[in-house]
Amino acid sequence: MRKISIYTLFYKSIYSFKDLAKFRFLDIGKTIKYVFILATIYFAPAIIKLLLIDRDFSQLSTNFDKGSLAIIVPIYLIFTYVLYSGLLFIKISFIALIALLFAKGLKRTLPYRNAWRLTAFSITLPTILFGFFPLFNIEIPYGILYDFAISIIYIMLAISKMPRVKK
């Protein structure tokens, strides 16, 4: 399980609930690396839209010339990426608490550290979907609720594939 590639993790996190349940045993370093790569994939459409499609720096360039923008735009992008990553980590931590409640309700043993790892892999599909929607100018009302709902459904299905507690 340790030599599994990030690509395999990404691919299997989208469709295989049984593998999601197994991924909870991966080391935390690989999981955090996966979350940063997921944050990069989530942030990439926003960068593409800002830099290539819209080329609209009006919210940044109120009193700046072109030379200053060459410095400010990369700083803005780095700051935004750090913000996106932080929000993704907070989202994972919050949903992991919900996963603990589901595990308890389904009579499965799931420590928080494993719930956090399971959640990190379970949010792959909704994170990718809702990351790419702005690129295509698709706005979904209450999108964050759908994002959480899909994530929680994935976690419930993954927890249901875990073995029950033996008495």
UniProtKB/TrEMBL annotation:
Pfam families assigned to the protein according to its UniProt record, in alphabetical order: DUF1189 (PF06691)
Keyword rRNA processing: no
InterPro entries in UniProt: DUF1189 (IPR009574)
Listed transmembrane segments: 34-53, 73-103, 115-136, 142-159
UniProt keyword terms in alphabetical order: Membrane, Transmembrane, Transmembrane helix
Superkingdom of origin organism: Bacteria
Protein name: DUF1189 domain-containing protein
